[in-house]
Amino acid sequence: MNYNYTFAFENLICWKESRVLVKTVYSITADFPKHEQFGLVSQMRRAASSISSNLSEGTGRSSHKDQAHFYQIAYSSTLELLNHFYTTLDLNYLDENTFLEIRNQICSLSFKINSLRKSCFSS
Hints:
There is one protein chain. The protein is 74% helix and 0% strand. By secondary structure, the chain is mainly alpha-helical. The chain has a single domain, classed as Up-down Bundle (de novo design (two linked rop proteins)).
């Protein structure tokens, strides 16, 4: 068997960036208070994982409308994750410089995902 096949999602820049974001979220949340493990930490990790999952699932859909739907969910997950990071800033789990770095990363990714979603309607 040949495993050198590349799936469409593996070529998406935003999917690659979302993988980096997941690693960042896991790394940052590892230092959060233990009492947040099943609350905020879990929500943030699920939101981050949802981004790459929905991007990959969207590429497997046959219609542009279905693709756009999954890209919209991925986009929404970036906004959810950003909101959670605001909460971590408010709770002093994160310093402002780290927050600004992750916010820039999330914003850049969200713009790319939104462009991908919009491209489904111009095809």
